[in-house]
Design goal:
Elements lengths: L1 H11 L2 H13 L5 E5 L1 H6 L1 H13 L6 E3 L3 H9 L5 E2 L5 E2 L5 H20 L5 E3 L4 E5 L12 E6 L2 H8 L3 E4 L2 E3 L5 E3 L2 H12 L3 E5 L15 E3 H10 L5 H16 L4 E5 L4 H5 L7 E4 L1
Helix pairs in contact: 1-4, 4-6, 8-10
């Protein structure tokens, strides 16, 4: 315990803010945070992510972690001679032939976290059946597909995990009432989870470390009411980052007190225990 507390203060380096946020998290009855890990971040920084999650666990702060796969699934499909498809909206078009590979990657990505935390003595568990979904309407897409539209979020499996002091690791997979599996965009699934759990902070981990401007420098703060239209119309944010911003906007509209931070996978603790963080802080 002492080792992890010392690590927190050493890594963050802002003692007063750390103390303030520890008190804020401890005094709240709401979930303190949700972390969304991008697929590329999980592949490139598993040790740093697991170290920070272990520190949280030893502070009695269990954070639901929702993860993506992105590049990992693209690479797996390519190995099997399958070309990945993207819709104009930026979401992946998942075909029937992709499903078996999707399940494999979902398990492998979860095991990076579950096994990494187990190596640190932290119980973690993959939590399925959190999201209800239906087929997403994708204009212009021909043929059957299994890209999911989020319909509902079931919190009970997550709450059961937390109640037994186990960190929930959540894939963005949804199921129809008939048991049909759908691939939901991870940012969309995370937004649905945030809206239901209403945490104090929502941390989105990406290898860019934040939202980048035209000079590829991190934009430290984005006010959605002032900056959103310019970022979109000026094509400063596109594709995956645009979807992240749009889902963050939707989350803040539902949870006005929410702090959203897009950050490096190396900086979970810094984002959680400082006021501004080192990535991009998104406000109303």
């Amino acid at each position: 315990m002492i080792h992890y507390i010392a690590r927190l203060f050493d890594k963050v380096g802002k003692d007063e803010e750390v103390v303030d946020w520890i008190r804020a998290f401890a005094s709240s009855k709401e979930q303190f945070a949700i972390v969304k890990v991008g697929g590329a971040s999980l592949q490139s920084n598993p040790e740093e992510i697991c170290d920070d999650l272990a520190t949280l666990f030893h502070l009695d702060l269990l954070v639901p972690v929702i993860y993506g796969w992105g590049d990992a699934l693209t690479a797996r499909l390519k190995e099997h001679g399958i070309q990945s498809e993207r819709h104009a909206s930026g979401v992946r078009v998942t075909r029937e032939g992709d499903i078996c590979h999707l399940k494999e990657i979902a398990n492998e990505q979860a095991n990076i976290l579950v096994n990494g935390l187990a190596a640190r003595g932290i119980p973690a568990q993959g939590v399925d059946a959190v999201f209800a979904a239906e087929k997403k309407y994708l204009e212009g897409v021909i043929g059957d597909h299994f890209t999911g539209e989020l319909v509902d979020v079931h919190l009970q499996p997550i709450q059961a995990c937390i109640a037994k002091k186990t960190m929930p690791i959540i894939p963005p997979l949804g199921y129809s009432p008939e048991g049909i599996l759908f691939n939901i965009n991870a940012d969309t699934a995370a937004q649905g989870l945030v809206t239901q759990m209403r945490p104090q902070k929502y941390i989105i981990l990406t290898n860019t470390g934040g939202v980048l401007d035209r000079e590829k420098k991190i934009i430290p703060r984005i006010s959605l009411s002032n900056d959103y239209e310019e970022l979109i119309k000026g094509h400063v944010v596109t594709e995956g980052m645009r979807l992240k911003i749009e889902e963050a906007k939707a989350a803040i509209q539902e949870v006005p007190t929410l702090a959203v931070q897009i950050a490096s996978p190396q900086n979970i603790l810094i984002e959680l225990f400082t006021n501004e963080g080192k990535g991009t802080y998104i406000t109303k």
